[in-house]
Amino acid sequence: MFRKKEKNFQKSERELNIKYIQFNKQVKLKWVIISIIMIAFAGLLDYFTGPEVAFSLVYLIPVMTSTWFTRKPFAVFISIISATTWTIAEITAGRFYSHLVIHFWNTISMLGFFLIVTILLDRLKTNLNYERVLSRIDYLTGVMNPRSFYEFMDIEIERSKRYGHPFTIAYIDMDNFKKINDKFGHLDGDNVLRIFADTMKSNLRKTDIVARLGGDELVVFLPETDNKAAKQAIEKIKKSVNQNKNLKDYSITLSIGVLTCNTNPPSINKIMESVDSLMYSVKNRGKNGIKYSIYAGHQNEEVDSISTNNKPNYSLDNKN
Questions:
Q1: Is 157 in contact with 225 (CB distance < 8 Å)?
Q2: How many domains does the chain fold into?
Q3: What integer pLDDT is reported at residue 81 of this predicted model?
Q4: Contact predicate 75/122, CB 8 Å
Q5: Which residues touch 200 (CB under 8 Å, ≥6 apart)?
Q6: What span, in angstroms and rounded, lies between the C-alpha atoms of 261 and 301?
Q7: β-strands 209-214, 217-223 pairing
Q8: Do both 186 and 265 map to the same domain?
Q9: Tens of pLDDT along 235-284?
Q10: What CATH number does the domain containing 193 carry?
Q11: Whole-prediction pTM
Q12: What is the spatial distance between Cα 34 and Cα 40, in angstroms, rounded to a whole number?
């Protein structure tokens, strides 16, 4: 059980790394160039000040810079350049030893020092990134936690306002989840939540976001998605959950509220309040259903509601 949880976490960590942690290639190239310029500057200072002044620590600055802002291979490359430049500056500045091998040995020693710093600093950066990811996901299911989701939503709302692109958000609640915990135990309940979250993610695009807001309540954010596309995506999720062999013993049903924002979306609090209300309206009408609505810029417009109690029974209530 723990291995499954750890594997699920690592998978989500990789997904979030893709979205939030990996640096842009142009940014990496910029820092490599900056590091090389710093090495050149350090080499010139080392040369003009002569062999009496030690500049070893100055060469460490570009090594640390490249390690922190780029990947380890770039940092190793910068370390080699730094050690080589240090040796050239030493020789051209007039420092000579009894044997040429000593220059070689000192270069290797300096390179080893730079590489040790690179490895330690890269490990520190990795641990900090790991903690950052850990603080942004739900460890049980591997999806976003509320803090991460609300930060993401704030950005997406501003982007939607700027470009006028629609998005859809769905609030999904697992009906009678407490009975699963009471009948099968909390370990089974946790496993159901993990399978539920994995099923949702496997039926969505890579650009879509799943978050767990608490208990058995999950939310799905679908960028660049209008009402028609949202229906296809949400009903695909519901169908996949119903057909999942690992969930058949638990008789899982879902109550879902879906809100599509076409233009001028409201605040995140208003959106969540609206979609939560849609979900609870399904609960109040007998659970196991979906209710759709469109935010048209000033108010919600109910498009249709789907009630599926025991047997599929579709009822459309169109309001203009």
A1: no
A2: 2
A3: 94
A4: yes
A5: 143, 172, 210, 218, 220, 237, 241
A6: 10
A7: antiparallel
A8: yes
A9: 998 888 888 888 878 888 889 999 998 877 788 888 889 899 999 999 88
A10: 3.30.70.270
A11: 0.65
A12: 10
